[in-house]
Amino acid sequence: MSTDALSDVLSAVRLSGSVFFDVTATSPWVAEAPPAAQIANEVMPGAQHAMEYHVVTRGSCWISLVGVVGFEPVRLGKGDIAVIPHGDPHVVSSAPGMRAEPDVDIHRRPEDANALPFALQTGSEGASDTRVICGFFSCDARPFNPLLDSLPRFLRLRRDDAQASQSLLDQFIRFAAAEASNKRAGSQSVLNRLSELMFVEVIRLHMEQLADNSTGWLAGLRDPLVGRALMLLHARPAHAWTLEELAAQVAASRSALADRFSQVVGYPPIQYLTQWRMQIAARRLADPGVKVAAVAHEIGYESEAAFSRAFKKVVGRSPSEWRKDLG
Asked: Count of domains in the chain?
């Protein structure tokens, strides 16, 4: 296993990206997106969870989450990126306060993937003043996705935040705009990979901007003590870790490590390890050719029975039931 916990999690939860719409708009205009859970399987077949993103490549727009108390509309300028990690319904418009009826039908993925991104024109007649590239990230939310749990309802990165002239975000915007316009052979694959790279960069920049007193898994990666512990757990998830050994490895007392880990991440390190093991196991169980006993051994259980008990306790279903649900 890698010592890069973020890469580990992104791989285990099967992060995937898709560029879906290339929108040119002339003011006044408005578009409203339904809850991502309502359209997740349409836009990303088989997805457990979908997150929508919007990249402004020309002009500006406003975005607002629907039904989130206290959320004020946010203005996005050229080069800004917005991500809605928990799939809240939202409105994108030329001015704040506008509403529209969500169009679920336009979110159906075409049989020919090369038809993506859909080119949409909206608003009044005349030359467009805004261009927005919109898409989705999909990932597994179950049984354990510590990254998703640590993200806010809304992420906005401004072009200035990323020092755009040198950032991956600026490269994504330039390349995505060109690929969406030209639709050369392989454009959809290029756009999808670019969007995944963009997501990683968004997460890294968000993590860098967290306040020192922030909590959650991403805050844990930044914390000197908790981050070292997470690195070790991800490097050797099958190892029979004890709190005493882990504390010795990070040069801390057991109580100091347990208290700090729980304070930042939300639960003790060994509980985190158990949940992370179950996410690895769930991913492996998706392969029907892999025996349950082999999965148990891979993540550090001496017997299939012990693993099955642990899996059911954490996930709520036995490994065989989980595998059956996947099929």
From this structure: 2
For residues 62 and 196, state if they share a domain: yes
Helix ranges, 90-242 (H)? 146-150, 168-182, 187-208, 217-222, 224-235
- As a three-state string, the secondary structure of 211-250 is CCCCCCHHHHHHCHHHHHHHHHHHHCCCCCCCHHHHHHHC
Alpha carbons within 13 A on the beta-carbon side of 253: 3
Residues 188-220: pLDDT tens digits?
Answer: 788 888 889 889 989 988 998 899 999 999 999
Residue ranges making up the domain that contains 184: 5-208
From 208, 229, 257, the end of a domain falls on: 208
The answer to whether residues 211 and 234 touch, using CB atoms and an 8 Å cutoff, is no
Sign of CA dihedral 52, 76, 205, 57: positive
| pTM beyond 0.85, yes or no | yes
Q: Are residues 260 and 179 in the same domain?
A: no
User: Which tens digit of pLDDT belongs to each residue from 166-178?
Assistant: 466 777 778 877 8
